[in-house]
Amino acid sequence: MDITQAAVFLAITAFIAFATYLHCRGKRGTGSGDEKDYFLANGGLAWYFVAGSITLTNLSTDQLVSMNGNQMLLVAWWEFAAVVGLFILAFVFLPVYYKNNCTTTTELLQKKYGDKHIRALISLLFLAGNLFIFLPAILYGGSKFFLSMLGMDQGIENLMLFSVVLALVGAAYAIFGGLRAVAVSDTYSGVLILSLALVVVFLALKAIDFDLSGIPAERLTLIGDNDSDIPWHTLLTGMIFIQTFYWSTNQTITQRAMASPSVGEAQKGVMAAAGIRLLIVPLIVVVPGIVSYKLFGDVPQDGAYGMIVAEVLPLWLSGAFAAALFAAVLTTFNSILNASAALYVCDMHEAYVGKAKSVGRLGAIVSIVMSLFALALVPFFASQESLINTVQELYGLLSMPILSAFIVGLAFKGVEARASMVGVVTGVVFYGFWAAPLDWVIALRGAAMEAIGGGSLLNVHYIHWMACTLLLAVFTSLFINRAVFGNSARLAFGSHEAASVQ
Prior knowledge:
- The structure is a single chain.
- The chain contains 20 helices and 2 strands.
- By secondary structure, the chain is mostly helical.
- Strands 1-2 form a two-stranded antiparallel ribbon.
- The chain is globular.
């Protein structure tokens, strides 16, 4: 790194940290055991902090690096579909969370089913996803970008070195500042990174004289064929369920929206985030990658974004952009750590061990342990061809089964919690067999289909399998509820329960 780049990088990173400190100074509650303070900022997040935190918690290296790494327009559908997910959060789920005074999304399940065990099960699945998928993917993606932008060797030693630095600083924000510090730093960093990412888009297009000719048509289309990463028909099945799960039930995201003084203030923040997602994010996550294809050809293993940034940004501005992306990685990492601590402390420790004497101290222990495990998993993600596809495929193991518990709990009355838990486990096993991208599962699946002559099923896209998983999990829950527990599930719509959902 040039001395100019380094100076700008350090100055901006220090400024964001200092500005966050000034805003949060003296605003933490006096009770170290107050979950609402540590995990929900005492309900004190204004709508603009909600919007900024939601935007930057999601917008990190798994978007900027891996989506641009695909070098095609098609992946913008992840962002367009996210707008629908944010509307569902704002007008369907948020009123329910606020009405039930929830600290975690899973607390709603305990109140709807009247059982703490289903809350703990879903929390465990969320924690598994954060630990084994999101945290290591974020560390790998951030390290990959910096190595690519700086032209450094991308061997595992350098990847691990950068990952350790990111994990240390990110964990410090989560441990010492709680949600308020995370959300405030998210917002300051968000303004910077969105601005600079748009500059990258403009300069990248300028580098090719705004001429996209010569780029293959399949890289410029929004209509994916059967062999593409997102076939057009998957938009009609599992895509909407993926977005509903991620934006409406995922603690890491919804925690920000649950930390406002009122549901109206939270909805304003979510709508602002939806506007950013629709108007700005699709441009910055696909255009640089497409331009990099014209400039450099097919760049392997998510290296395109770092190369284009190094190519088009002047030296001093590249230091600023490195600081912005460094902040984006940190805020996503510390957001997931804070949400994970909330899930463990509120949903598991206090339910089965006892009231935490110090929420902050226990949260710090959870954050440290998860950071260490995430670092150990970075080499696995370094071996994958596409980060964004690997993350989405793996998370299907958990996302649809978790969403089934929320759908059954909110849409029906009279369902036994244990029946829903059976549905969740069934969904995990079903998706694991049909779509999990793990070598030993792929071998088992192939052998089983060869034995029964069902080879065509191997070509079904994993997003379709997500929709099938959700439907199977819901059906299994209702069937077990009736056949084993003798309960008749009744639709809640039109009743008092439905009013709270609507």
